[in-house]
Structures are given as structure tokens and as C-alpha cells.
Amino acid sequence: MVASISGSVGSHESGGKNLPADVRTVQEMLTQASRKLNNPAFDPKGIDGKIGRPGSKSNTVAAITSFQKQQVGMSQPDQRIDVNGTTWKKLVAVAGVVVSKAPAVTQLITLTVTHGGKIPTATKFKTATLATAGGMYESTFALSGGISGTFRGSIYPDDMVIKGRVVDGTYPLHIGFHLGGGAAKQTAPNLIVKTEGIRAGLLVNARNNVPVQSDDTDKRGSVGINVHTGFTSSRFADGCLTLHPSDWSQFIKLFLDGFPNIDDWHTIGNNTGKRVGSLIIKKA
């Protein structure tokens, strides 16, 4: 829909009216501008409908100020976006359409992975094991609850000799960033579909230990288990659950659209976000 605000948004000191719905709209648009221009200075670092006091300590005011300097050309930013004002018109031109004024997902999600007892190809076992799946992605990944969809994926690592696959059962499911456990906190421009490097994904039990089965008899658990994209020649999985590469973009975009607030992706710690539901792994 076309974005609009009913009153000024900015620092309280500059006279911003800061109605919550208007603040949220501006925050969403600044987040969008930050992504499109790949400029973290425009990132309000959250979409909560609030402007902190004093303005000098508000991330949203800082983002408005940077936008006015760099995009509007104001040498002395007034730290305020007025209805149909110059800053507003420039922000609309850069950010474009605002999809929603609130996160799309408001209920818990269930990701049900059904593997049917099948063994995927390209999986290394200590003893030669017949592949029965007819491909590298043996499982069906079905989303229900706050979002829905069915996708192809795998619960198997590439090498069962040294790694393990998560044991059938039910586990907490969180949003977060794959490969981001020890990395610096990601910002709003990183909430995009990616297939390499640190990228948005799902975390099983918030990266904490989960039981696994493996050819290594001493390996009974793994930490850092994620749900992320696989590839065509190899899943490149060390115990994580992977999505077929042709299905990944559609799958992860449901979560990017459903949880647009970067703060949701960091509620527990750097790159480890809030619980969004449950993962169920079962044979049939």
C-alpha cells in the first residue's frame, strides 16, 4: 500500500508528534531505505513505534538525521519528517511501498519435517549404505501456523561418519543468522535472501545442544544446528537441516516478511533471535 503519516515524526525536541503508527511507518521505510541503499546509517535498528528521549539517544532520530544529510542534502538536519515535507517525499521515493505496519506473523509456527525413513544420496556412512531417496533431499518440510508452505529438504549431514543428524522429536525453533554465532550483530540490511556467508535462517534450540545419531558412537549431541540452504552438488551440511536450493528463497522469505523487525532476530544474543515456534522431525 502507499505509505502515509498523519503527523510529524522525529525528535521530541524538534516538535515531532510521534504517533506510534506514524513512527512505525517511518521506521519501516528507513529500514527499507537502508536495505535498498546498503547503508546502515539509515537503519533505525528496530520497528517499535517509539522515539526515545532525548533525541540524541534515539536510533530512529539518528537514522532520520543521516538520511537528511546524505539523501535530502540538508547541511543542518532538523531531525523531523513532516507530512508531505521534503524529507518525507525523498523517503517515499527511496523506500517505495510499505507492505505492512506490523509483523505479519503473530502466532507460533510449526515446521514439520517428514523423512519417511529414506536415506538420501551423496551421504557418507562408515559402512556402505543404500540410498533410498532418489536424490539428496529426502524430506518434506511443511510450515503451518503463522505461515504455511511445503518444501523439499534434508535432515542429513553430508558425512555421517563424523557428523550426525538430529534425532526424531520436537525442538524449539528460533530465527537468527546461520554462521553468525560468533560474528558481530547483523543489521537490518542483512534481512535479505542470501545463499552464502552469514545469512538469515532458523536455529534449532537456539544453537544449544540437541541429540543426534551418527556413525561416530561417541557423538550423541550437537550444538549450532541451523536450518539453511543446501546446494545442488552437495548439501554442505555439518549436521544442519538443509532446504533444496530451488526452494530456499521462497522458504526463508516467509520468515523475512513475517519478522521484519531486526530486534526479533537478536532477542537472545548476537544473531540469535526469538523463538517463533517448534520443529518436529518424524518418520511418517
Order of helices and strands: EHHEHEEEEEEEEEEHE
Instruction: Evaluate the radius of gyration.
Output: 22 Å
How many individual domains?
2
**Whole-number average pLDDT?**
92
Largest sheet: 8 strands, mixed, barrel
Portion in strands: 15-25%
Low-confidence stretches: none
Structural class: alpha+beta
Q: List how many beta strands DSSP finds.
A: 13
Continuous helix count = 4
> What coarse outline follows from CA principal-axis ratios?
elongated
First-residue to last-residue Cα separation: 42 Å
Strand order of the largest sheet: 3-4-5-12-11-8-7-13
**Percent range of helical residues:** 10-25%
What characteristics describe this protein?
284 residues, alpha+beta, 2 domains, eight-stranded mixed beta barrel, 24% strand
Task: Give an overview in words.
The protein is an alpha+beta fold and 284 residues long. It is built from four helices and 13 strands. The strands form three sheets. The chain has an eight-stranded mixed barrel with strand order 3-4-5-12-11-8-7-13. Strand 9 (210-214) and strand 10 (221-222) form a beta hairpin. Helix 1 (20-37) packs across helix 3 (86-95) and helix 2 packs across helix 3 (86-95). The longest helix has 18 residues, at 20-37. The radius of gyration is 22 Å and the shape is elongated. The two termini are 42 Å apart.
SSE layout and pairing:
Blueprint: E1 9-10, H1 20-37, H2 59-72, E2 80-81, H3 86-95, E3 109-114, E4 139-145, E5 149-154, E6 164-166, E7 169-178, E8 199-204, E9 210-214, E10 221-222, E11 226-229, E12 241-243, H4 248-258, E13 272-282
Parallel strand pairs: 3-13, 11-12
Antiparallel strand pairs: 1-2, 3-4, 4-5, 5-12, 6-9, 7-8, 7-13, 8-11, 9-10
